[in-house]
Design goal:
This protein has about 130 residues and is of the alpha+beta class. Helix content is about 40%, strand content about 20%. The protein contains 3 helices and 4 strands, in the order H-E-E-E-E-H-H.
Length: about 130
């Protein structure tokens, strides 16, 4: 079987066309994107936090404890304790101690914050503008 020169050239051109088509297909087909660990979006999970709430009045100050759950709102963990009617600081301390999941460190921080606010209220005489 002897091929003519025309047939050989025709086959060669056909092969070259097929190679260009394959090249075009490879160029148009995007490679799958495999995210690196660095590129992945990391969701920051916020932990629930404890928040002191205050009701600032002329003759009393109320202290309450809430747990704020991100995305869900806040949950009261105590009623408001009013100073000087009662020892609000001591009542807050008792409430914190009754919650075993609250660390000693966090309890001290919250009680120190409550002390600072009560002192500020006393110095101002209940007046917010002082």
């Amino acid at each position: 079987m002897c091929e003519s020169r025309e047939e050989a050239n025709g086959e060669k051109k056909w092969i070259q066309k097929m190679e260009r088509v394959e090249d075009a297909i490879v160029e148009e087909t995007p490679l799958p994107i495999v995210p690196d660990q660095e590129d992945e979006v990391k969701k920051v999970v916020q932990k629930p936090r404890l928040v002191l709430k205050f009701i600032w009045m002329e003759k009393n100050i109320g202290l309450g404890l809430d747990q704020v759950i991100p995305g869900h709102g806040s949950v009261p963990l105590s009623p408001y304790f009013f100073w000087p009617r009662k020892d609000a600081w001591e009542e807050l301390k008792t409430t914190l101690e009754s919650k075993p999941w609250i660390s000693q460190k966090k309890m001290i921080i919250l009680l120190n914050q409550a002390t600072d606010i009560i002192n500020l209220w006393q110095q101002s005489g209940g007046n917010l503008t002082s």
